[in-house]
Write a structure and sequence with these properties.
There is one protein chain. By secondary structure, the protein is mainly alpha-helical. The chain contains 15 helices and no strands. It has one domain: A middle domain of Talin 1 (Up-down Bundle). Helix 8 packs antiparallel against helix 9. The longest helix is centred in the first third of the chain and has 33 residues. The protein is globular and about 55 Å long. The termini are far apart.
Length: about 350
């Protein structure tokens, strides 16, 4: 049975049409799993007493970033050419961060009646600043990788890259202290899911995580095939474009779905925390992938085209900060349109 399924899958992705169909199907799997996982994440907040703030910033952000982790990791491990794997992994992470920031713009345009940042108790300014700090650390690591081999013994990553997980942990500790010091919001009544027996609840939770991880692995395989020449069933696209556009957008679908679901329910703070928390978590992927790529410096192999994404993330983060401080729908719409327009302009660089 397994052999038959694998043969069918190989035949399906051997053509361009089949490749697109398979890509769409796997992306749909990630979306469905992400929706269900957000429900269980909310129930996890009830069971643990952490509340929606930390659940959105830490748990949902981490879980919805699992596809990015798996895609980037398998890209560097499975690629026959280290440069191709490095390009796909770096492009996937940076592209996902860019698209995540666009989610805020989409929320402002599509849910204008509920997008009221002036009513938020926490506008997530600290989270945006944390993301910028980690982006600066990544930029230093990317820049120095071209000129020096600063490798950490045993781990094999560069010293600037090692600063990413250290900074992330310190920032989460500070955010946790801030949440403890602040007045806790009143939690909703315990849901049916929250009262489920622990073995059943956590088994389903882990199963959903497994579906997202499996979907991420398949996306990395399909993404690699897209880079093949047309005569071999691919599209002949550059690895940097595959990572920055196709893989990044598809692996950011859980963030999109969860954020949209949150704002529809009136939880704008959770939606914003999920987006900004995911961008912080995504930068850890560089540390994971660089450590996994034994004998090579991942950032040294990555294309210089990725500096476009770095600059774009920087610009969109500042624009997102302005968006989260707007007080009228008109102002929100204008900034959101400018963010989307800037993204379209930057993506033309990769085409």
């Amino acid at each position: 049975m397994y052999k038959t399924c694998m043969q069918f899958f190989e035949q399906l992705i051997s053509t361009q049409i089949g490749l697109v169909v398979a890509f769409a199907a796997v992306a749909a799997l990630i979306v469905i799993s992400g929706i269900k996982l957000s429900v269980y994440g909310d129930a996890l907040g009830d069971r643990t007493g952490l509340g929606s703030g930390l659940i959105g910033l830490v748990f949902l952000a981490g879980v919805t970033s699992l596809p990015e982790v798996v895609v980037s990791l398998t890209s560097v491990l499975q690629a026959t050419d280290p440069a191709t794997g490095a390009d796909m992994a770096t492009g996937n992470m940076l592209g996902s961060n860019v698209f995540n920031l666009l989610i805020l713009a989409f929320m402002a345009l599509l849910f204008s009646a509920k997008f009221k940042p002036q009513e938020m108790k926490n506008n997530h300014t600290d989270s945006a600043v944390y993301g910028l700090i980690m982006l600066v650390i990544f930029s230093v690591a990317f820049l120095t990788s071209r000129y020096a081999k600063l490798q950490v013994p045993i781990l094999g990553c560069s010293w600037p890259v090692l600063a990413l997980p250290i900074a992330y942990v310190l920032m989460l500790m500070r955010e946790h202290r801030n949440h403890q010091d602040s007045t806790e919001e009143q939690l909703p009544a315990e849901s049916d899911l929250a009262s489920q027996p622990a073995p059943k609840f956590y088994s389903i939770l882990l199963g959903l995580c497994g579906l997202i991880i499996g979907g991420g692995v398949l996306l990395s395989i399909l993404g690699a095939r897209m880079a093949l020449p047309p005569e071999l069933g691919g599209f002949g696209l550059e690895a940097s474009l595959i990572g920055t556009l196709f893989l990044a957008i598809s692996t950011s679908l859980p963030e999109l779905v969860i954020s949209f679901a949150s704002i529809r329910l009136g939880f704008l703070e959770m939606a914003v925390g999920n987006v900004l928390g995911s961008n912080m978590f995504n930068l850890l992927i560089i540390f994971i992938a660089d450590t996994a790529l034994r004998g090579h410096s991942m950032l040294r192999q990555a294309s210089s085209k990725h500096w476009t994404s770095v600059i774009l993330i920087l610009a969109l983060t500042f624009m997102a900060g302005a968006l989260l401080r707007t007080k009228t729908r008109v102002a929100s719409s204008i900034i959101a349109i400018l963010m989307i327009g800037l993204y379209a302009l930057a993506m033309s660089f990769f085409m």
